[in-house]
Backbone:
DNA sequence: CGCAAAATCATCCAAAAGAATGACGACAAC
DNA sequence: GTTGTCGTCATTCTTTTGGATGATTTTGCG
């Protein structure tokens, strides 16, 4: 079964299940209320209706309150980020040639460092995932890395990528 | 399904679960009120009391919901300021607190960025691999990352790690 | 042209990583 | 003394990654 979509299907399944459970629970709850209502021959409906109304209203009020009360402070935090202004960055050609890393491999290395998955890289470069895997395999081989995180680390210290 | 979305699945799941708990709790509350009403035969003049009770309870619930649901929404204005090129590096405490990243999680983040596998990290910290996985899962959740490479990338741009 | 390097894709398999969930003890805060 | 956070660990499952290997197509170059 080929996993086609990128966003986790597992999570979506869980979300759907949660909604389902929620709905069923709600239905059962209503049913129970109904039955007890009949059992005790209570006709008066105003309590549920007004209770629910009050609940909903004050829930909304509470949510609104919570939101407005707390969203005051974290608005503007100015960070001082040492932005290096004088670095267009060029990969170390010597080291590149030394490791016999091809342009395509370097390109993929960059995308790996950007945090993309093989599938995302494949989509980005319009090639198959298998191709990306062979490229990255050879890349790891040349870099002496066993994991992509290690490859990124090594490449950074070798000034192959920013 | 376009493979474009990158929003955290964790948060969505939490939101669903919160809503679920919330709904069930509300229903149970009504049920309990109903039952007690029958048991003690308190019929008259109870509407104001229970209405107030429901209002107060649901207000509190709503506030809590609003707070937990909107817990971490950064919205930071980033201002780039050229800084000294040779700094000993200190992690951005503000950002760290903002994302609610614990010291242990930061430690593991650093080891991930160093290219270590979960097993190696576990051996390095004398904990089980499962613990490392738990930490990194929560870390990814807080960082909004789905892969460790992405976590590293995000952490670097947020100045959490060198 | 013909060759070699680079790029492409596949398949099978193993290992690592990640997701979801539940649990427990320590410890600080209220 | 309850509450909340943190750190710890486990289990089950799915997904991703990596290894090994072979094959086909481009492409640049002498």
Residues:
């Amino acid at each position: 079964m080929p996993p086609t979509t990128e966003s986790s299907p597992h999570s979506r399944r869980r979300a759907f299940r949660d909604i389902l459970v929620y709905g069923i629970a709600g239905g059962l709850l209503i049913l129970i209320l109904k039955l007890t209502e009949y059992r005790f021959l209570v006709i008066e409906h105003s309590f549920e209706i007004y209770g629910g109304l009050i609940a909903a209203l004050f829930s909304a009020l509470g949510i609104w309150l919570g939101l407005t009360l707390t969203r005051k402070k974290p608005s503007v935090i100015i960070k001082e980020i040492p932005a290096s202004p004088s670095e267009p960055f060029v990969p170390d050609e010597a080291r590149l040639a030394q490791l016999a890393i091809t342009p395509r491999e370097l390109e993929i290395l960059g995308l790996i460092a950007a945090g993309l998955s093989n599938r995302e890289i494949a989509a980005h470069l319009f090639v198959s995932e298998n191709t990306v895997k062979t490229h990255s395999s050879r890349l790891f081989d040349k870099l002496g890395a066993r994991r992509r995180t290690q490859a990124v680390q090594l490449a950074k210290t070798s000034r192959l990528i920013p």
